[in-house]
Amino acid sequence: MAMDALKAKAKSSLSRDPSPHPDEPDKYRLLVTAGPSYDPSTHQIVHVNTDTATSIENEFIRAKLKVRIRGYRGLPSSCPSSSPYFENAAHLKDQYSIAFSFVPKKDLPSLDAIWGNDFDHPVRDRLPPGFNTAFRIVKEFIDPGLECDAYADEPWLYGPALSCWFGLRIGEKMEPGTELLEAPEANDVLKEGADGSGADIRQQHALPDNNEKRRKFFLSKAHREGFTFEKDRLYQVDFFNPYLDFGNFALKLPGFSIKVIKYIDEKSHTLRYVFKNRVTEEVYLCVNLNLLWGDQLQRALKADETQLQELAAAKLNDHNGTTKNDDVD
Fold it and tell me: Which segments show compositional bias classed as Basic and acidic residues (predicted)?
């Protein structure tokens, strides 16, 4: 179906949208966590829009991750509202980025390695009008590798990791115990390509230098079958797009926008990204974008305030200690 026809159908569906959520967006805050499994108790808080990387490790990989969100209004409250990342010419329109570097602890087959979203509870009763049309737009014009079952008891939206990731850089083999290279600094955008012997890997697999051509290349099952995430080799990844606006809680697709906040409830308030093996269900890495409100938000704000006070006290003690040492000298 042509793009203009899809837009018209989407707008028609959205005109039947229910009335806005009674709460205003400023009563909500985001909290991003990441960890080596689905279990939230294994997660750490991600310091969005900073150069502080979150370290993640399990039996499959060790990784370092950074998240950038344009117009971030969330916790920790010390996080900046934006990042120099979005000032780069390649990312002027992008709304967020999940970037990470990882080194496999064992060879990981890429055929069934997926990246995407899933939920551990049904969301079919929370889907906005126009959802099916929106997904058709995404699949036809943005990522043809995506598959989705939004009406399952445990709904999902996945694509092959190697065709979903917008940036992929293959690095050198690393000695066990070597400090893992972090995802790029805020003003150092990941470039498609390779470093050292990683260039040989790209050449052996005839990987295109262009990221869009590489993504299309890995839509082929045969091409993914021949590729392995090698044990001890460094890989760097960046996933970004201009479609999810976390500042305004909206999904913005070509031709129309959906206000997501009105479809949030106590169960459906976390957007989960996962890198895993779809067949074995082995989870390599998980990122949760949690929307907090009400009592949950108040508890989080109190914890954040306590942490800020502890950090201020620690800095004051360090300063006083340094001053005393200077006086002695």
Answer: 18-27
